[in-house]
Specification:
Strand order of the largest sheet: 1-2
Largest sheet: 2 strands, antiparallel
Strand content: under 5%
Structural class: mainly alpha
Helix content: 40-55%
Order of helices and strands: HHHHEE
Radius of gyration: 15 Å
Amino acid sequence: MHMQGSSPAPLRAAPGEALTDREIEILELAGRGLSMKGIARVLGIAAGTVSWHLKNAYQKLHVGSREEAVRRARELQLIEGLQLCPHCACRLAPRH
C-alpha cells in the first residue's frame, strides 16, 4: 500500500475530483454521442490525444469503458445528460 503523507488515500477521494478540464470536456463530447474522430475535430487535437485523455479519465473514475466513464461522470454531475444525434448533431433528450 502506498502512503502519501497526510493526504487522503486515493480511493477515499471522490473519483471525479482529479479530472482535468480537458478530460471533462472530452467526456462531455463523448456523452453527446461524438466519435473519437469527431471529438478530435471539435477540439482541434489528434484522435490519439483524445484516446489518451479518455484512458486517463477511465483510471480516475475507476471504470473500464467509454460508456461507464460517461455514466459515472453524469452521476458525479461533471457533465450534463445531453446527447447529440449521431446523424445531424442536434440535441436529443436525456436518456432515463
